[in-house]
Specification:
It holds the Pfam family Tad. Keywords: Membrane, Transmembrane, Transmembrane helix. The protein has 122 residues and is of the alpha+beta class. 48% of the residues lie in helices and 17% in strands. A three-stranded antiparallel β-sheet has the order 1-2-3. Helix 1 packs antiparallel against helix 2. The longest helix has 48 residues.
Length: 122
């Protein structure tokens, strides 16, 4: 037999558990969106760095950082920084807008291998 003061406590407990499950689901969805955005930013940075390095080495015509910016834009990202290095490589940083309150960032370097790397050696 229930005491009169305990009536409705199961309803409150069920509501609390439902709220906790809802918050957990929101967290998991946000985590998934952050992972997708980070992957998209990394891919855009890789491709933008390759475009900049190819242009810098003369394999394509144009300005290397402009090529990186156009490539990043085609992949849904914005070019944040573009650095042309003395070893004929390019380093780029991009950002991708997300549904979350922050941006996802990606950074990549592309260019020829270092001079001390010989073919066939790890």
């Amino acid at each position: 037999m229930l005491i009169k003061d305990e009536r409705g406590s199961g309803t409150v407990l069920s509501a609390g558990l439902a709220l906790a499950m809802l918050l957990l689901m929101v967290f998991v969805v946000a985590l998934g969106q952050a992972a997708v955005a980070a992957s998209k930013a990394a891919t855009a940075a890789d491709l933008a760095a390759l475009a900049a390095a190819d242009t810098y080495r003369g394999l394509m015509a144009g300005d290397p950082c402009q090529a990186a910016g156009e490539t990043a834009q085609q992949h849904g990202a914005a070019l944040v920084a573009c650095t042309l290095n003395a070893d004929m490589s390019a380093t780029v940083e991009v950002s991708v807008a997300t549904t979350l309150p922050w941006l996802a960032h990606g950074r990549a370097r592309a260019g020829p291998p270092p001079a001390d790397v010989l073919p066939g050696q790890p």
